[in-house]
Design goal:
342 residues; two-stranded antiparallel ribbon; single chain; mainly alpha; two-stranded parallel sheet
């Protein structure tokens, strides 16, 4: 049975009711665009809620639209200058209590990351700020920052500290809110009260891979060589993830042609079997017409293949790419650069 939605001080609307009300207020055209970004179960839940709603009072519609606008405004301010900046502007616009509620909802729903206030800090200033901290503290901070920022900081650390920090980032799993708060109090007291209280997953192998993919080659080699001695299994896991097969798209045609000269045709056909169409095209376009036809025929005739075999073939090609980079025969663009030479 369809129902009316009216705002009442005695009944707090839940998230689904608010979302459904917002979509009703926005109309079908805009709602359809929003649905494209939602998960299937979320669409089903909202569709059911909308279907069960016969009408929405003007007061409820205005309340939900205002709340949505305030949260969007807070999110924009956070993107521009961090939580502290957002809090300051919202307090001027909405008042202290309202601003606190809006930011509270936003941090709870979007899990705004700690150390937000230093994400826009110049890396050289940040280095001066944290270089004398314990390696574990530095690792925690860098884990929360964008790889482009973390890579510049870790590159500027003393060589003996680089691998230690990298290892700690890779081995980091879950950090309690209390530890994060203690570190933030030292760095920025005013943010400590806004940290989300849920345990936060941070760091790990993927985090250090993103950072190492952005640092200069010298820093990367030093860190990896040190880890290979101290933590060989960890170093192997990191190395496998540092340049994945799909990253061949970042190479220019001459570099790809140089790589393909060292690749066995059977490995290439198997590797391409599980590759994206974009990767297949760029590789086949860098082969002779005759060889490209032969590789395509091999792919068609080999039938079903195990994913494990495909990944092994792709890893062989990745190893060739890394070997050619080590010998300076090709250059992989890193750290935002775009120069790739042979």
């Amino acid at each position: 049975m369809a129902r009316q939605i009216t705002s009442s001080p005695d009944k707090e609307m839940d998230g689904v009711e608010k979302a459904a009300t917002l979509l009703i207020a926005l109309g079908p055209e805009k709602s359809a665009q929003i649905f494209k970004h939602l998960k299937e179960e979320e669409i089903e839940q909202l569709t059911l809620e909308i279907a069960n709603t016969s009408s929405v009072s003007p007061q409820t519609k205005e309340m939900v639209l205002n709340e949505f606008y305030e949260i969007c405004l807070a999110q924009q301010y956070i993107a521009e200058g961090g939580i502290g900046y957002a809090k300051e502007l919202l307090e001027k616009a909405l008042g202290e209590e309202k601003a606190k509620n809006v930011i509270g909802k936003l941090t709870a729903s979007l899990q705004v990351r700690p150390f937000e206030f230093i994400r826009k800090t110049d890396p050289s200033q940040l280095l001066n700020f944290i270089q004398d901290e314990h390696p574990q503290t530095i690792a925690l901070i860098l884990s929360y920052l964008p790889p482009s920022q973390s890579s510049l900081v870790i590159s500027s650390l003393p060589p003996e500290k680089q691998a230690d920090v990298a290892k700690r980032i890779a081995q980091m799993d879950r950090t309690s809110p209390d530890v994060i708060k203690q570190v933030e109090k030292v760095l920025e007291r005013k943010l400590s009260s806004l940290v989300n209280q849920d345990y936060t997953i941070v760091g790990g192998v993927d985090a250090i891979v993103s950072i190492l993919n952005s640092v200069d080659r010298g820093t990367e080699k030093h860190i990896m060589e040190t880890l290979e001695v101290e933590e060989p299994e960890l170093a192997d896991e990191i190395r496998k993830k540092m340049f994945v097969f799909e990253d061949i798209l970042s190479l220019d045609d001459r570099a790809i042609q140089r790589v393909l000269r060292d690749v066995d045709n059977s490995d290439l056909a198997l590797a391409l079997k599980g590759a994206t169409e974009e990767v297949q095209n760029i590789i086949l376009n860098n082969l002779s017409s005759r060889l490209a036809v032969m590789i395509k025929e091999d792919m068609e005739f080999m039938g079903p293949v195990r994913m494990k075999d495909v990944e092994e073939a792709q890893q062989k090609i990745v190893n060739i790419i890394r070997k050619l980079e080590d010998s300076a025969e090709i250059v992989i663009a890193r750290g935002g650069g775009d120069e790739i030479i042979v």
